[in-house]
Specification:
By secondary structure, this protein is of the alpha+beta class. It has 5 domains: about 35 residues; about 70 residues, Helix Hairpins; about 170 residues, Sec63 N-terminal domain-like fold, CATH 1.10.3380; about 60 residues, DNA polymerase, domain 1 (Orthogonal Bundle), CATH 1.10.150; about 200 residues, Sandwich (Immunoglobulin-like), CATH 2.60.40.150. It is about 50% helix and about 10% strand. The protein has 24 helices and 9 strands. The strands form 2 sheets. Strands 2, 4, 5, 6, 8 and 9 form a 6-stranded mixed β-sheet that branches. Strands 1-3-7 form a 3-stranded antiparallel β-sheet. It is extended. The relative contact order is 0.08. Pfam families: DnaJ (PF00226), Sec63 (PF02889). InterPro entries: C2_domain_sf, DnaJ_domain, Ig_E-set, J_dom_sf, Sec63-dom. This is Translocation protein SEC63-like. One of its GO terms (molecular function) is protein transmembrane transporter activity.
């Protein structure tokens, strides 16, 4: 409620602006309806003038027929008559004139109008003083001022300001500072990440005119620093030692510790700084990722570890929720504070995560918060029920290959991550949920997929196109005919090989002919059965081809969908300590925990409403073996909602015709061959290497 009230007062123009926009939209609709009414009243009859149709005579009528028709209709339409119509009588007179007067008839035949061609003129209404000769010097001077001075200055100012920012509206100087520090410290702890975040030039008055510096900061900031342990304000490293950096760092620490600030001074600074942090943290993730790619391409020597980029990701939900990482995730619920946490600990069971609390039945949940009023408890359940519960499914394959499940050395592996988002209310009162589908106390699901990668995600339902639908009826009938074809050749061969008995010689000619006819019929039946079996096999092969074609079509559809531009609207986040409204975003990536390396670029999922499919691609190692990789999912909005799953990659030796993969070629000289092997050993770790390390 305080957050909504502050947003209302911070943007007093927002309400009148919305009302003005609605009034403009209503006025636009009214103008559109008025124009539509005017168009509907347009006189199409005068636009499509046909004198023969008006007089009711056929084409090529004589002058006598024209005059006769005119007299007859004029007696009816003349204004002096009771049935008269002035408008229709004028049309009748014009039609009679068009057919009786030679010049009017030529005009109608040539231009469609008895009066001749209609002249249309266009012009621009200008003030008279502009075209007057005495004012020509002043007019030219005004044009020169606008197009030679004002316009270049405006465009230059816009360009000068735009080149200072990246695509995410982060200062380029801030990005360069991130690159410097992350390259200098490859393995960075969380508090060091906070120090670099606070040193962003967006918080410096010299680079951002929106920053407010007060004289009271000289007293309030030192007092705030005394309340914050481990702030490391005595660091002499620029720009970490600058005044603006220390102030921003103290405000971020106070925000994570939920320390109240002066509402007239530092509280305004806190709201501005904290609102900027998610964008800056995303830029930090991008910078670390670029440094990792540069290290893989041998352009830099120091490789940032996976802990560095994960610490950047951890910081984002901490900022959004205003909570340290080591604090209980239960503090993200309303009304829950440090004093209430003791109710979640008893002799039978200790509740450490939001998922555990949601799985309890209604009586147990209410009993834990029995000191809360009904309204407070309902609010807690409402917030908890709207929190995300993500079903995290993973499988891998080698696309565009004959055997998608077989991974060869140097092949491009595609890991298909399926995210199915549900509300936490689906877990309410369900004590029978399987353990492998739940998130553990640490927020990490340690479910390990099989070696073959057969953790099947629930792919989005795509209707099969009509051109792939074929009739598959008669399957049972074809099977029967197939059995008959197998049984028929036996008797037939016996009949051909066995000698003719002597009794058959004594048979009459008619009986022999009947036997021959029966044999011929058996042979014809066998031939038809053979044809049917061949047709059945052809149909099966066609169906298999169609299935393969449909599978390729489905994968292509998923690829195109993954390449489409994503919206940034998913679900609102309950974040009372964050000054602005926030949407749920996620990061998913693949890493090697043992070698502490990142294998894929962290994919930022910004549109997970119900279901999202993400394709993560990386190059398999050059050496055969079994590799254990980890697929991670991290939230940028909530603490304790991260998940990870291990996949075992059984890399086989590449075929003989494939000697090298272009993905592993670098521009280095041949003398750097051993360096590549060392890089490989640091990038991937096989299970055999792990067993040797354990020994």
């Amino acid at each position: 409620m305080k957050k909504r009230e502050f947003q209302k007062h911070a943007e007093p123009w927002k309400g009148p602006k919305n009302i003005l926009i609605k009034l403009i939209i209503i006025a636009g609709w009214l103008i559109l309806l008025f124009l539509a009414y005017k168009v509907s009243q347009f006189d199409y009859e005068m636009a499509n003038f046909d004198p023969y149709e008006i007089l009711g005579i056929p084409l090529g009528a004589s002058q006598g027929e024209i005059k006769k028709a005119y007299r007859r209709l004029s007696l009816i339409l003349h204004p002096d008559k009771d049935t008269g119509n002035e408008k229709e009588f004028m049309k009748l007179s014009k039609a009679y004139q068009a057919l009786t007067d030679d010049e009017a008839r030529r005009n109608w035949e040539k231009y469609g109008n008895p009066d001749g061609p209609g002249v249309m003129r266009f012009g621009i209404a200008l003030p008279s003083w502009i075209v007057e000769k005495e004012n020509s010097v002043w007019v030219l001077g005004l044009y020169a001022l606008v197009f030679m001075v004002v316009l270049p200055v405006v465009v230059g100012t816009w360009w000068y300001r735009s080149i200072k920012f990246t695509g995410d509206q982060v200062l380029l100087d801030t990005t360069q500072m991130y690159y410097f520090f992350f390259h200098k410290t490859p393995s960075m702890v969380l508090k060091r990440v906070i120090m670099i975040l606070a040193a962003s030039l967006e918080f410096n008055k010299k680079h951002n005119s929106e920053i407010v510096e007060r004289h009271s900061d000289n007293e309030e900031v030192p007092q705030l620093i005394k309340k914050l342990p481990n702030l490391n304000e005595k660091n002499k490293e620029p720009p970490l030692c600058y005044t603006y950096s220390i102030k921003a760092r103290a405000i971020i620490h106070a925000h994570l510790s939920r320390i109240p600030l002066n509402p007239n001074t530092l509280e305004h600074d806190r709201r501005y700084i904290i609102a900027k942090c998610p964008y800056l943290i995303q830029e930090q993730v991008n910078c670390v990722n670029q440094l990792i790619l540069l290290a893989y391409n041998r352009r830099i020597q120091r490789l940032p570890t996976i802990e560095t980029i994960e610490n950047c990701m951890k910081l984002c939900p901490m900022i959004v929720q205003g909570l340290w990482e080591f604090k209980s995730p239960l503090l993200q619920l309303p009304y829950i504070n440090e004093d209430n946490l003791k109710y979640f600990m008893n002799k039978k069971k200790t509740i450490k995560s939001l998922q555990q609390y949601a799985q309890l039945n209604g009586e147990e949940r209410r009993n834990i918060l029995r000191n809360f009023s009904i309204e407070e408890y309902d609010n807690v359940m409402k917030v908890l029920g709207n929190m995300p519960y993500v079903d995290f499914q993973v499988k891998y394959e080698v696309m565009d290959d004959e055997n998608p499940t077989d991974v060869t050395a140097g092949a491009i592996v595609t890991v298909i991550v399926t995210l199915i988002r549900k509300n936490m209310s689906t877990l309410f009162g369900d004590d029978t949920v399987k353990e492998n589908s739940l998130i553990t106390e640490n927020g990490i699901d340690g479910d390990v997929s099989k070696e073959s990668g057969d953790v099947e995600p629930e792919a989005p339902v795509i209707k099969r196109p009509a051109w792939l639908k074929q009739k598959r009826g008669g399957g049972k009938k074809s099977k029967k005919t197939g059995k008959q074809t197998k049984a028929l050749p036996g008797p037939k061969s016996k009949m051909e090989e066995s000698p003719v008995p002597s009794s058959d010689k004594k048979k009459p000619k008619e009986e022999k002919s009947r036997d021959e006819e029966s044999e011929e019929s058996d042979v014809s039946d066998a031939e038809t059965n053979d044809k049917s079996s061949e047709e059945e096999s052809v149909q099966k092969s066609n169906n298999e081809d169609d299935d393969q074609e449909w599978e390729k079509f489905r994968k292509l559809h998923e690829r195109e969908k993954s390449l489409e531009g994503k919206s940034k609207s998913s679900h609102p986040v309950h974040c009372p300590y964050f000054p602005n409204d926030k949407q749920e975003y996620w990061w998913t990536y693949i890493c090697d925990r043992k070698s502490k390396t990142l294998l894929t670029v962290p994919h930022h999922v910004t549109s997970l409403v119900e279901q999202e499919v993400v394709h993560l691609k990386f190059t398999a190692p050059n050496w055969p073996g079994v590799y254990t990789l980890t697929v991670c999912l991290r939230s940028d909005s909530y603490i304790g909602f991260d998940q990870q799953k291990d996949i075992k990659l059984d890399v086989k030796e590449a075929p003989a015709e494939i000697t090298e993969h272009p993905q592993w070629e670098f521009e280095d000289s041949e003398e750097e061959g051993p360096a590549k092997e060392d890089a490989h050993e640091s990038e991937y770790t096989t299970d055999e290497d792990l067993s040797e390390d354990d020994d």
